Amino acid sequence: MSLYDFEVKTITGESGTLAPYKGQVLLIVNTATKCGFANQFSGLQTLHDKYRPQGFSVLGFPCGQFANQEPGSDSEVAEACQINFGVTFPLFAKIDVNGSNAHPLFRFLTNEARGVLGSKAIKWNFTKFLVDRSGKVLKRFGSTDTPEQIAPRIEQLLNR
């Protein structure tokens, strides 16, 4: 199964797959609007805006598993992201990223790009997965890795 085959639901409730993103460089992120790292929304949006014309997208997957820092409904999350952070990059329905109810996409991502000491578990909000144009998961970045720090890696992939 490839990255593009996973079923996902948009934040507005539409079902589909990631197939529309085939051929793009992606940064897939588990997000939370009440998290101390929520200021990264602005940096993620900047990346999305800057590199989108070259075939790049940020994909945000809200998650409330970490200290319930994403407590709202999907519509409340969408509103908070737009009003508080100016987010226009694609957002998807709230999911779990760890445990028995983890979304299959995140099971795939964590298997393909492991964390510290080979860990599969996501440690906190704003863990980021960089994916190349062929759908290969290249690297996992932690919560403290800022969008600005990831930009050079994105540029390398876009210029291949």
Features:
alpha+beta, 28% helix, two-stranded antiparallel ribbon, single chain, Glutaredoxin, 160 residues, four-stranded mixed sheet
Give the helices and strands, then pairings:
Blueprint: E1 7-9, E2 15-17, E3 25-31, H1 40-51, E4 56-62, H2 74-85, H3 104-112, E5 128-131, E6 137-141, H4 147-158
Parallel strand pairs: 3-4
Antiparallel strand pairs: 1-2, 3-5, 5-6
Helix pairs in contact: 1-4
Active site: 35
Protein name: Glutathione peroxidase
GO molecular function, one term: peroxidase activity
Walk me through what this model shows.
Helices cover 28% and strands 18% of the residues. The chain has 160 residues and is of the alpha+beta class. It has one domain: Glutaredoxin. The strands form 2 sheets. The chain has a 4-stranded mixed sheet with strand order 4-3-5-6, with helices on both faces. Strands 1-2 form a two-stranded antiparallel sheet. Helix 1 packs parallel to helix 4 (147-158). The chain is globular. It starts with 6 loop residues before the first strand and ends with a helix. The active site is at 35. Pfam families: GSHPx. InterPro entries: Glutathione_peroxidase, GPX_AS, GPX_CS, Thioredoxin-like_sf, Thioredoxin_domain. This is Glutathione peroxidase.
